[in-house]
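Collaborator request, handled under Task 6.
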Amino acid sequence: MSANHSWLLILLLLVCGAARSLADHTNAARPNTSAATQATDGITSLKAKAEKGDAQAQFELGKVLWTTSTNQDEAAKWFLKAAEQNHKGAFSYLGMFFSVEEGVAKAKV
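Structure tokens returned to the collaborator:
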């Protein structure tokens, strides 16, 4: 397995763990709603925190967008916002992000 594949596997495991944690928290709070509704509500809440400047929320939102969105520029934007607040994980993800995402408009970031 190449180094890039190893990093992608590690990233996938980290994102799955974060998504599971978010889903578990959301499911416990509202057990009678659909999983899709709970996931949407969780992302909406995460984005609201990120927009208020919460570095951890910005980092988590970047991870969610990187793995679920076709708009990779948006993911890069949130990683950068978190990194600007010295979020160590965001620095790490930005490095991995730019090593694998050739389509990102680097000038925008």
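The cover message to the collaborator said: "The chain is about 75% helix and 0% strand. Residues 3-108 form one domain. Please let us know whether this matches your experimental observations."
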